[in-house]
Amino acid sequence: MRFDTLLIANRGEIAMRVIRTARRMGIRTVAVYSDADADSPHVRAAHLAVHIGPSAADQSYRNADALIDACQRSGAQAIHPGYGFLSENAGFARAVVDAGLVFVGPSARVISLMGNKAEAKRTMQAAGVPTVPGAQGCATAEQILAAAQQIGFPVILKAAAGGGGRGMRVVREAAELPEMFRQAQSEAASAFGSDEIIIERAIEAGRHIEVQVLCDEHGSCLHLGERDCSTQRRFQKLVEEAPSPAVNAALREAMGDVARKACSAIGYTGAGTLEFLLDADQQHFYFMEMNTRLQVEHGVTELVTGIDLVEQQLRVAQGLPLAFGQDDVKLTGHAIEVRLCAEDPWQGYLPQVGVMGEWQAPEGIRTDSALQSGAAITPFYDSMIAKLLAHADSRAACTRRLLLACEETTALGVRTNLGFLQRCLAHPRFVTGEVTTDFLGQQDLDGAAWRHAPSEHARAAAALLLGASDGGNGSGMPPRPMLASDRSTGRSVWIRDVTSPAATSTSECVVRHAESPGTLEIQSRSATPPARSRSAREAAPREPVQTWRIGHLRCTAEDAARRSASIAFSLDGIWRSLRWYRDAQARLWIQDRADSFVFERVTNFDATGDAQARGGALKAPMSARVIAVFAKAGQQVAKDDPLVVLESMKMEMPMLAPCAGRVEKLGVSVGDQLNAGQLILEVVALDAATGEQA
């Protein structure tokens, strides 16, 4: 069972994480990569790398035959599946062993047993583990409805064959159940290849607590404390911490004993996690599922225990005993992790693709990622692109450290949830440790409390970088003539903040020399975009002028090819240094603490913009695959009727009718891969009274 060459059957930061430990243990590593990942850092970090197929995951990272062939070609004797794709696929684990290789994980029998939520629940009940009331084996909407009425609303639907929030729906009344059941089945089949759904009572205002376990082949079965994963959105974890602020020593021991008992009952080996729901009284807990793999959030457990979980996985896989016992496991301090995702919080958290033009990880904390400046964020894989993990003596100190780290992270060129994560950490309920699974669901996530406007420094920087140049000088920096501009007139342009769909405010900026030597003066006047005609423009209402005086300007370009730089200046005596990046569309990205804002220079104003906004064109919001089409050409639809369902980065996005009318120009079919902005269909608006085209 000993091996000296290990293939990591995964990508990105997962592969980087395993490579780091394997290298320290003296184990040679082999990376695999798809077409989309040819330039990924994990390819260069490994000793060897093998190409395994096209960009689509099911043709590369989920292709068991290609992965086993890569082992044979590279001389790898073992496969580590990471914590996604094939890590909980019993067929893959069995195929690896049948090929004479070592699978770093539990046996195929155990994976199969725990991989199906329904079977896992029955097994845990037989072992005396407390479970949430529910039902399995419901194959029709009628059976689900009967079970729900017996359990009592609200209920939760779950994909029996997988997790990660996919295939999960909370249903609060009987009328919602048929459609929710259909959606859950569709998403489960797409994500896991099985549409089996289980139903359980929805325990609200509870906590999502998971217990880390380690077991070897020599009878040792340990728990390494718990993680609190209650900060979730749509069942997707966003913030995880260890230990849980809701778990005391007695409860920790009780949950740990149940976890060890469950592992012993099924003959578990390796690293794994048992997930529980802790109810509102923080006294009763219920088994939800077992993940027979390393978890995304394993790093917080490593930080508080000092135990490298990947190292223990590799030791167990080689038949070695764990080098410590239960009494040796100590929890020190507090650790918190946030998941940085390529998604836009202000557009319904839609996944984002593009080029990460400027990336810089913060110092002083652990950052797990495979990002680099210029990296392509593609639609083929998960939207999570990095994890930021902080550790400190106390929870309060850890939170402060991570809040600052969010500000010191630079991520420009692709929209992310970084600013949203920082506001989650700063929320009073999180600060006091009172977060439950319904925390984010109770918040107005798209409201003003979660959205920040650009600061005066950011707006001034945008005025300098966009308003004072005629397109830049190759580096994207203001050309020198700006500094010698006419003091009486300066330069005047219109600048628009396009960070979110609602951010349509436009400013006229005039940049000139002030009377003080070496000082620039920016006058900004907000107004609605002017009409095309000069007379209409001059007649437009004017807002009061805001004046900024900027001194000691420094603007440096670090990479002209990427058109990225930093700009530092004093505004009213306060110095700020901001990172910025100009993308291929000439939009200016500015990092303002943990938020990034996007500005564009407005040269033409389209008077027909409002008319277009009322139009019925339905376009793909990003690169995505069509997985369902409900509309037919000529069909009459009501506003917000579901017409098409898209999938990108493992997320389903229903596309709704933009207005009431008749479907025209339907040009997509199931399976089509769409580009961002591609026309899906048009809905011709109809007059409500006559039924004729409006």
UniProtKB/TrEMBL annotation:
Its cofactor is biotin. It comes from the Bacteria. Keywords: ATP-binding, Biotin, Ligase, Nucleotide-binding. InterPro entries: ATP-grasp, BC-like_N, Biotin_carboxylase_complex, Biotin_carboxylation_dom, Biotin_COase_C, Biotin_lipoyl, CPAse_ATP-bd, PreATP-grasp_dom_sf. GO terms for molecular function: ATP binding; ligase activity; metal ion binding. Residues 505-545 are annotated as: Disordered. Residues 121-318 form the ATP-grasp domain. Residues 608-684 form the Lipoyl-binding domain. Residues 2-445 form the Biotin carboxylation domain. CDD domains: biotinyl_domain. SMART domains: Biotin_carb_C (SM00878), GARS_A (SM01209). Residues 524-533 have a biased composition (Low complexity). PANTHER family: CARBOXYLASE:PYRUVATE/ACETYL-COA/PROPIONYL-COA CARBOXYLASE, METHYLCROTONOYL-COA CARBOXYLASE SUBUNIT ALPHA, MITOCHONDRIAL-RELATED. This is ATP-grasp domain-containing protein.
